Fold each of these.
Amino acid sequence: MPIKTSTMKTEATTESPTRNNEAFLKRHKSDSGPYLTRASSVHLLASSILIAQCFCLAYAINAVLFEDANFNDILPYLGLFLGCVILRAGLVFLADQWAFYGAGLIVNKLRHDLFVNLFKRGPVKNEREQPGDIAHLWIEGAESLRTYYARYIPARMTMAFLPIAILLLVFPVDWISGIVFLVTAPLIPFFMIMIGKGTEALNRRQWKRLSYMSGYFLDRIQGLTTLKLFNAGRREVDIIAKISDDYRLETMRVLRVACLSSLMLEFLATISIAIIAVLIGFRLLWGNIDFLPAFFILLLAPEFYMPLRRMGGFYHARMDAVAASERLAVLLQGAEDASAQHHSAPLPDQFKITFEDVSFSYDGVTPVLDRVSFTLNAGEHMAIIGPSGAGKSTILSLLLGFIEPNAGRILINDIPLPDIDQRVWRTALSWVPQKPHIFNQTLLENLTLAKPDARMDEVLQLAESLHVTDIVRDLPQGYDSMLGEDGARLSGGQIQRIALLRALLRPSALMLMDEPTASLDHKTETAIRSAMDTLSKGRSVLTIAHRLHTVRAMDKIILLKAGRIVTIDTPDSVLKHPELHDTALEVPLC
């Protein structure tokens, strides 16, 4: 298992603007259906009931203290007060249920879209991504959006409504208290934003560090055997300890700023309420205000600042969501266009493939393929040979839909390949990669991976032809034996034979094979190659080959060099081509 040597970057070299990340979050809000809108509306209704609740309590106490009211006189107001408390609690509970359910719909939709888009991107585009980073984004990244949608969005609506509603009620009753509310209220969001600006960069950097840690740890666990073989365990322990300590320090920096933010918000809210209380107290003493409006305003004062304080707490949930959305937006890029396919009808049993001046570059600068043109007719067997880096595997990746040409086009019976639904196209293919994957399932389940409903007699016939029966005899439970993840109990040659069998078992019109017999000894390869030539009759076959006897039976051979086609001809002609024996080609045709 190779060990990747990633380098930690504490600062992002390029960061997407926060505005774009928030646009991403806003765009996916509609995935919650009506639930987030309902939750916000119910929270606003609960806020209105809160005002009525405060008035009922203030009126009842005023009646007892200054109007000599008895219990029966204030009973209706106490009943209204209790009813408001119960109704408001029920509404808040219902709003929270709707908010979390709607947020759950968004999170599930994002996880589904992430899985689908990673699958559509294919292994070529995904090979630069760290599996640990993807897993962290799938679990923690998507989960951080739940709090944003379930808490921050409704809190933002309440913050926009409740303080304004209280101001409209207070100004006609006591304009002095209204002025204090109006002057002090903007201070809380102002300091929240000022402190949040500094926290945002720290939070985004912390998120990147955590993603890096996830990828690094998983990579080292997967390469544990290699680390032990090279006696590098102690070195990696020291590196992991350093990374963990850096993450701890960065976490404390974020928490320090977050605690400072909360302290500042609480301090401003407390001071503002104290100012209101002091002014009302002196005016009550001087007789400039009655007890009922004074007490009503005092009850409303904490509720006036509460939405602003709550926003301060949920503002950090927003920053987490913004940081996570930066990576999600990159990995979900193009998911909205996934359904923009035109040709969804099943393809014919046989078809012609045409490359027309196809060019491709992985980095946009160095061409891997340069104006490649050829035709693979229906039922034709064709091999591609050439030195390492000539572009052979890139041709297969283009046909599999993992990448798209930078120039030129690929036609399937005169239909451009991008216009064919990927699911329809891939049902017509069988693929044997250089390194086939074996799942931690039984041998039979791995053999019938592409055709789960295959009959046992079909499997047995192919197993005999491809020498898979030798594998069955070596396994304790035969076809029901568990193979282990990535074929832990098998050799490279055995894995290759299993991959060949499941590719031939699939009823496909086109077989794509990347060095399918590279891990086999000469005797086994000769036998299997002979069987494959018989079993693949009637199918189109495109093979990348490195050995002479694997291409002699082909109808045509393409000789590639530096991304260009040197020649396309019959095996006898190509194998005598002077450039084939140029030592710079390094093609082990032996």
Amino acid sequence: MKNIRQFTTLFILILSVSLLAGCSLGADKQGDSVKDKLGKIKTENVNDPDEADKPAADEASQPSDKEENEPEPSPEDMYKADASSVFAEMADWSFEFASGAGGWGTELNVKPDGSFSGTYHDSDMGSTGPGHSNGTVYLCDFSGHFSKEVKTAGPLMYSLTIEDMVFDKEPDTEEIIDEVLYSYTTPYGLDGLTGEEDSLVFMAAGAVTSAINEEELNWLSPVHFGSYVGEEFKYIEDKPDELPFAAIINTKDSYAFFSSNISDKNKTFLVNRVKLPGLKNTVSKLNDDGTYRFEDENADSSFKVINTCYPVTDTYDMSNGAEKFVKDCLKHIYGPDAPGDDVLYVTSPNDAYFMQYDYVSICGGYSDYAFWYPDGSGGNSVCNGRFIFSPGTDKGSSYVYAYIIEADNHYPSKTFPDDSFANYWIGSLTFTGRTDGISSAAEGKGAVSMINCDMKAPENDKVSAREIIMVGIDNTELIKKYHLENADFDDDYEVVMPDKNFRDYTLAEGGDTPFYIQYPEDGARRLNYAFELGKYIKKYDEDDSRMMYLYLNEDGEVVYGFEEYTP
């Protein structure tokens, strides 16, 4: 995988050729290379620091008064970014370079004028000697300025150069204070970058993670995109498609700084990786402080999604205080209609050994999972919810994220999706720094029917499937119809194929049609797009097929599907 510095050059060259030829860049496609993604990803984003400075489409298309033979602007001018806007965005985050293990780290804070300051620290209490029996501390307090020559390196990505940097203490000097040896050094992660053009890339929240090479990503993943769950502490990696926070990439050494939000606004948003066709957005409220509440429903309101974020002043331990945390969330969201203790079931990361892993981890952070029956235990309505507490740098900057699916089975002719699908879909949550995906509704027709089938691996925007019928050991009507009186009924059911021929079904969204499987390889992402599922099935199933429920729209196209439970 190419690093960001190479991406920057390729992006500029490719986009320059496109503009000079009068071409436009197309929409992002799942299978594109990273180089192509940088040229194709949408740039419309409320978090883009340069968005306010971009000309309107009709204004940009107006003929200019310049002479026809006037030379085109150079790439340096064409991709010059508004430094003040970029620095202002950087000032909303506190950056840190650390491995997540050990006590070392480099902290960096940027001011809106492009100046910065920070500290590198490390310690070795076992490194003692004459006069320093209390160990050794490695330290560097530094400050400096970024150059005002900031370039756009891709959507939500900006190339930076350190113009100057000074140190409070001369590097390679030492002194002993209170039996501790202080060894002064240079800042790890920024060492040797002064004057190195385009040596750093600032990635605003929402930038695509595919633009980060594997070595750089390794500095982010252990702490932020993975977690250890269950009795055996299995490591589950859950890398988001887009950064949920800002990052600074040292392209020279392949290092990466993660960040924490220090602004007075929420800048991270919980979204579902898949937007469901057939859902309509009914509530769309994005507040000035970055908190929000979005609601989406299907045609007969039997399937409803609530996605909300709100500020809190309380502090929660989701592992040890899961029930109190979830109950407080539900009181905030539902008020007096919050479910009572007799119908509410709460699980936490401590219960991961018998939970689905994807109910635990979201981008490496723990979530609490709960379900309840609004009309009483055993009723026809069921709700599923995931709840995340995000502690802030101070008491006023903590937030709660909640994603709830309400499914009502009272309607005899209820449209899809239904409550069984909700159990799968709630496992596809992720965080991002973009605001354009908070709603879970998508364009397109929703499902109106379902078939149970043996499905071949998706290929060429189609799947081949033959319908199957599961006959339970107590279903006397179907046993008689299919002459199963002498069948073995292993696991209390038999599989019947009335028509053994495979039929082709078109995927409504092509390769982006979502499929869910019971036991994904990584444990955390039960979602597979069609093209990913094809690779998965061919890798793990000798006959290249999988028993699936396929949901069809009124045109007979597959809008989504999930694997049938097989004991």
Amino acid sequence: MSTVTNSSSIGTPRASGRSWRFWLLLALPVAGLAWVASSFLPQVGTGLIGAGADEAFYEVRTDDLVITLTEDGEVKPLKSIELKSEVEGRSTIRFLVEESTRVAKGDLLVELASDQLDERISGEEIELEKISSDLKNAVAELDLQRNQNASEIKKAESDLEIARKDLEKYTDGDYEKALKGIVIQIEETRLKHEQKTEDYEKNQDLNKRGFVTAAKLRQLALEIETLNLKLDQHLLSKSILDNYEKPMEIHRKETAVEQALDALERARKRALNKETQAASKVAQFESLLALRTDRLDRLKAQRDKCRIFAPTDGVVQYPTEGGRWGGDDQLAVGSQVSEGQTLVVLPDTSQMIVNIRIHEADRHKVAQEMQCLVKVPAVPNAAFEGKVAKIARFADSANRWLNPDLKEHTTEILLTNRTVDLSPGDSAEVEILVDRIAGALAIPVQCVYSRGARDFVFLRRNGTIEPAEVQLGPSNDSMVQVVHGVSPGDEVHLHPGDDLIALLPNAEAGSRQQPTPHRATPGRKPGVAAGHAKPGQSPAGAKPAGGKPPAAQPAAASEQAGKPAVAETDKAAETESVGS
């Protein structure tokens, strides 16, 4: 995968020193660089008065004082394409294009080993075939179950319909038929009973006249009695049919209908349950098939991602984060890489920036669009113009393992007039134009001596040299503004002797006892936050102008006047020195 990243997110080491002066401060044409340098160059040498080194003086005059801030950084492209490993877990590099190789779009840059992926893909394909076969069987079983369910439901519906028709047949057919049969028998028996009764009455007259025997009358009486019994029997049958057989048969047939209805409902539920189980089995295999298919596709995609091609033309650069913890992490064939690790960078060198880190004490002095001058040691005798493009809002402690109290703001300098090609990763030195004070009274920084919170210079007036208290303003590497205490034309001693230093007044109670010359602190007012150097101690190599350290004071002096030390600076400057 290729991602466009902003190089400002990568921190650069903090500046460890000040190696050159910032003469070119504004974005001017190249033809005007010499004029800018001559305008802003501190004129220390031209103000010297006196022939001997011990009697050198500086004549105070008004001049433009340029305040700068110098930081070291690293050249980076504004944008770059990072090609990262998208293979899960750890992989081994099988092929890696050489760094600084110019590649075209589509060229192979990195190839990672894919043997394990090939084995996993083969296993997944076999498992996928098995699951596909199981899915086909499950689908066939589902179709068979659906057919069987339909058959069972149809039979249950048929049984219900038969039970209903049987009930309807009895109530509308069989019962009426049986009832009418009994009614006919009753009527026939009554008719025969009437006929026999008439015959008996006629035969009684005939018997009285002697034409019919008594046996004949007895026969007729027996037949009449038989018909009476038959009539009673038929009436009883009708009563049984209405009162017993009909309700019982209707109840029996209605129960059969209800049972058939229940059987139909059970058949439907049983069919639904069996179909649901079969369908669930099909869905299970379908889900498993989709899961395995997705896994196979992802494995194939992972195998495809083992080969990384150039998304555009460019020059190959290896990531710079390798080995930053002291290990040998340089990428090479055979190296182990992790998912998300950057393998190759294709920088876009059309726009270059310099990443620097500004101490939190200097953050308020820097603003966006400030003009800068950039020098790159890899391109000697060349200077590049730039401007402050971005300043991190919050300070970080990227180097806290060296100094836990060091807090810096990552700052991005955009180069605006690059005339030659620069290589990403080149070290650079950036000077930021913080301020320019026009018509300032400025003197060399080594002329100022501090006693506690007070600052002094040695003036020569009417042939006499005596200390004068001054109020200082901002300073650069070599010159400091004097707000009050000197006037144009005054002569300031560059390196007074021990006898003159002894003339300084006593320090205030609680302040250090030794006077120290002022050290250049670009953009800071000297003496504002004093007391960070140890009393009577000066950093190694600190000397006044001219390179001659003052003589040591007698040890018996009530207030020792020590040799010139680093001027009192704010705590941020001291922290900056430690962090560098």
Amino acid sequence: MARLVVSKDVLNDISRLPNNVANKLTDLIGKFDQQAFAGGHLESPKATRDPRARTVRIDNFYRGVVMAPDKGDTYFLMRIMNHDDAYAWVERNIFRINPATGGIEVVDIAHVEASVEPAGASTPEPSPTALLHGISDKTLTELGISPEVLMLLPSVRTEDQMLALAVLLPLEQGDVLLQLMGGATPEEVWGQLGVEAERTTIDTDDFEAALEREVTSAQFVAVSGPEELLEVLSKPFDLWRVFLHPTQRRIAYRPTYSGPVRVTGGAGTGKTVVAMHRAKALAESLDAEQPILFTTFTKNLAGVIRRNLEVLGGKALSGRVKVQNVDRIASQIVRDAEGQNPRVLMPEDEKRMWTKALDESGCELGLDFVQREWVDVILSQAISTRDEYLRAARPGRGGRLDRRQRMQLWLAVEAFGAQQRESGKRTFLQLSLEAAGYLGARSVKPYAAVIVDEAQDLHPAQWRLLRALVAEGPNDMFIVGDAYQRIYANRTTLSKVGIKVTGRSYKLKINYRTTQQILHWAVALLHGVEADDLDGGGESLTGYRSLLTGGPPVFARASSGADETKQLVAWVKELHEHGYALGEIAVAARTRASVDAVAAALASAGVAAVVLEGEAETTADSVSLGTMHRMKGLEFRAVAISDCSRGSVPLPVAIVPENVDAKAHERSMELERSLLFVACTRAREALRISWTGQPSEFLVATGAIG
């Protein structure tokens, strides 16, 4: 019986189609079940780059692009496009099986050829031999470079030309060329090709065998009938979000690690997806009674992960893995130990108590300084006595404190503690420390494995709790994060909180979400940001890149706030008219007031929108609006940043005055840069940034605007 396999690219195409086309696609699947394509349903276009290319009629306007292998009864639905685009597509593309990885690839060879100058053209040195360090054609072929690309390499003579070529190639081929250009040896590159890459002869004509390999199955969904197709059509973007690229699969599905694992990487490199697949791998290998925890920093991200786990593995997986943010975990453990719900000290009450404590103790140090000292030094190191504090190091803190000042500050801490005891309230960080203490006395830990997402934003007190949740041993902790996306003033050295990742650290460098044009500009925002590797070492963005292409960010100045929201409404409507679902569009701003202004404008224009606050979540039929903080962990086809104006970004109240603490001032500026970077890199295809008056100094610093 004929079988249809749907490419991941089709999921993106489906999101742009009218709803009634889904029913016609269901009919298409029925035809496959009836083996009707042996008749006249598949058409062979006259002009094709690959003789296996076919088109199939969906209606008068839409065509499916199908790859019909020379042998076997499995057909590959590669794209769904309008008539003209479909026929243009088959004129440009070739299908192949990569001889190194065994995976199925599509190469837009016409686009690739057009991007490379003829070999005789006058171009600067170095030559391709120098760029690829003398690697032979034979070796390049063994590493999966297609013959068509090999023929073009003599015309590629600069690094910029090689990058321009690489972004047009399938991910594996492009990455091979860039790694070799970066100085990697063929053996090192081979080791990065994925778990299915073995030095065995691969039949490059056997597409059914290729489909069974993980390197291909990560890119395709096999559909057995109309019902299963409807399931795919109902959540195309959800499925896109949980696709795991083959180069990441080795990390997620390794059977055993001897201890904690750390995975770092820039925005869009798939860290959270790797973490979700790790949860799936652990759920499949551990006994049902061995619980798994997936935790992250914020409550709204926990909800996103919970939904994506269900997409990845159904209710069986989402029910097997407990997803919870750290604060809730701490509260539950303290409640279970003390027999009642702990009372939480909210920020406004905490500030009032510190003000009173400073007055009572006579401490002359500023309120903000003392609060940060308490969080960054005392709670970070779990200090409980004055003598411990007098001896404590103060890494990352500006302003030297002599012994007299430390004693004075400790008096304020004691006065603050007395107020807390009287109120019966504790902060979430204190609850984390106390929960860790309760767990430390237990021989049996609550979880068999703990997976940590957004690791860069967790405080050392929270890390002590996470370490205490699981016994040390194989596969105990799996940690993903990116210090360049740190949006809260928390820094941790994992080894200092009992988490040792030496020899079990991985770095992801390829952005699978955002186009190179958007990414290149967004990275410029991070100029001057000093990032760490979460374990005391330095971090850099060397090698961080996207192999996706698209349009550059759009910058728009507005004459007033009303003009800015009017432009945003027009932008949303235009995108919607061009096939973007409302749920694929988001608008972010630094302040809630700016978000509310956009919400009011969209409501007046009759455009459905949801403000991401409290328990509110993204929906398929509403534009998502939220502060930059609430955009963390989300992604959309199109994102607008509103009110990116001087005086709003960076937000003055979020910046520590330089005369109070020079180091804290510098770090608060870095956090604001990272926050804008995070918001911008939520965009997959389109990014629009607007302001009134003067643009943010961060925008000016990138050189993109005057």
